Amino acid sequence: MLTLEEDVEAQALRAQGWSVSAIARHLGRDRKTIRRYLAGDVVPGRRRPVGPDPFEPFVAYCRARLADDPHLWAATLLDEVAELGYQGGYSTFTRALRRYQLRPHCEPCQVARGRDVAIITHPPGEETQWDWLELPDPPVSWGAGKQAHLLVGALAHSSKWRGVLADAEDFPHLIEALDAVVRRLGGVTQVWRFDRMATVCHPASGRITPAFAQVAKHYGVRSVTCPPRRGNRKGVVEKANHSAAQRWWRTLGDEVTIDEAQAGLDRLATKLDSRRRVIDGERTTVAGLAAAERLHAPPLVAFPAEFDLGRIVTPQALVSFRGNAYSVPPGLGGAQVQVRHRLGADMLRIVTEGGATVAVHSRAPDGAGRVIRDDGHVIALEHAAMGAFSHERPCTHKTRRPPSSAALAEAARLRGLPATGPAAHVVIDLATYAATAAKLGSAPTYESEED
Predict the structure, then answer these.
(1) CATH of the domain spanning 127-291, picked from 3.30.420.10, 1.10.10.2840, 2.60.410.10, 3.40.50.1370
(2) Which family does it belong to (predicted)?
């Protein structure tokens, strides 16, 4: 078998007038081998099968089965053909399926494969693409569980993107992160594009929810959703997700706090604004294209979505929220309460499960580590703590208290020994008392005592 280089050299030497024998001597090959390659009977780099293909008798059956079910597992199909007499292994079987191209193309599952793909043009300032990025294995100190949540927004024209970490993907956290990303991007585009997330639209129909309709009105945008199974409509933000995952999250240390991680993400996104672009033959950068985006200013305050987060009251009558602690009246230690806060508001409320408001506080900056206590809560907590103490003399722990006679009698019973001491004369069987009471039919008189 000749290599590709040897085949090329043999063809060139033959074109120069060399004989087959001379070429064979020059390459150190057999003349018959050289003659087959020069005649085109053998293709370099491809081995000629020694015998008939053992898979060929089963080609028609596999083609029919995969036409019935294009998603039939190869392992399942291998079990079927093995019962029909096929003796090859799994890897040989799957290689034969690819060689004969037996599995048909499935359009719903492979929308971007096997067909032409159009380039979608995005005028400046037209569209912002949004997507949640689930990040596995966050640092333990975050208390985020199995994954962290990153909302990424990307300008479709310039591909400038920004991201914000969130505690969850529910409606209030979506609005809070969305507002933060908009202000990092520098403004609002005409359209916001989402996939079919339940906080934005009804996944089945793609129609916007009434709650998010109010958000779109607040920011002055149109909200559109991608058609089902058309994830490539959000290619700009998907590429931003890939950059964030590989260049930021992959190298994040275990000791990094949430604030430090957010700062690192902001630095990366700003650095990527210097990416080079060529538009109509002119060289520019992402930042240059972003400067030409026609964005309108966001509202002065975020949409007033309300957070309703469950918390447990500490024994010190404190409730934690966003890196700070807020006081509640005493007596609620260990109780479940709800912290309610509207975006853009300066106050927060702490409500019991029954709906009663037990505390109202001015909100401190997130992560400040402050303890906000109401004066009335402090006084009530001091009175409750002092009232719990007893004025009686505490027990003396050095007092000598040997086992009592009852304890000694019980110990003797357990050892199988006869009881001794005063406890031995204690009557346990009440039948003696019953017999004595039966003899006393009437109370004794003075005469009977003399007799």
Answers:
(1) 3.30.420.10
(2) Belongs to the transposase IS21/IS408/IS1162 family.
